[in-house]
Amino acid sequence: MKKKYNWPVTILLILGLVTVLFPLYITVVIAFKQPSEMGNSLASILSLPKSWSFSNFAKAMKVTDFWHSLLNSVLITGVTVILSVLLHSMAGYAIGRMKKRHKWFNRAYFYIVSGMFVPFAILMMPLVKETADLHIANIVGVIVCYLVFFMPINVMLYSGYLTNIPEALEEAAKVDGGTTWSTYWTIIFPIMKPMHATVAILTALSTWNDVMTPLVIMSGAGANTLPLAQLTFQTQFGTNYNLAFASYLLALLPMLIFYVFAQKQILNGVVNGAVK
To answer: Distance from CA of residue 191 to its chain's centroid?
Structure first.
């Protein structure tokens, strides 16, 4: 029997693939081209470089102070991910287990989740004022802000994932003399490994690619993250696209490597974390 294909879906998938790959192709091609090869026509932009050179990457690393910016991005992203997994998982566990028994926890859950609907534009000016008054208008302030920003979605995912974990495990541990604290860290926390991976990936991607929060909080602090360093190539008179696109690829690589190694868990975590 001949296999039947769902052509409308297949065509949509192909279009989606082209939509993703085309900008990536443009980025790679321009990053390896010399400025003299750039023209105003579409053909010159889409054409392959005459000679593949890494000189643009070396210049981009020098202009953006790449290693210092990379260290700041890794520090902010790493600390945010670790604290998010630890703090938000505990909050999600407490709320997830208690919201059906006590109205206060149910109200706290909806209050926290409602933070997902607050636009960042409304928070910018208060954040600048508060971080300045608290003397944390630096990397520390950025990390604190991220922990607050990602708390709604992470708590929702963790509390939803708990519906797949039977409470009988905790009851058995309690019979054996375990406390709530020891039960959580020895039984519940390891079981939630797929959700930890999901939260880590989503938090890391959002933190790594964010420009506005470091721009608003750390302005004047003399510290740049990789996304913030990309603004170096945009001047009043134009943009050096060759160096800019080379820098974009350099900023993309660390997170791409992280995603490749951690993506196996993300689908399982998102599906099981859906609120039933």
So the answer is: 23
3-state secondary structure of 258: helix
Provide the pLDDT confidence category of residue 81 given band limits of 50, 70 and 90: very high
Alpha-carbon gap, residue 135 to 89, rounded angstroms: 28
- What would the two tokens of residue 151 be? 């708390």
List all residues 6 or more positions away from 114 whose beta carbon is below 8 Å from its beta carbon: 152
pLDDT the model gives residue 236? 47
Q: Report the number of secondary-structure helices (H) and strands (E) in the chain.
A: 17, 0
Please tell me the distance from the alpha carbon of residue 134 to that of residue 153, in angstroms, as a whole number: 26
- The pTM assigned to this predicted structure is 0.81
The SS3 call for residue 234 is strand
Helix ranges (DSSP H) in the chain: 7-32, 42-46, 55-63, 66-83, 89-98, 103-113, 120-133, 139-149, 151-161, 168-175, 180-183, 189-191, 193-209, 212-217, 226-229, 241-262, 266-272
Tokens of 229: 């360093």
pLDDT > 90: percent of the chain = 18
226-232 mean pLDDT: 82
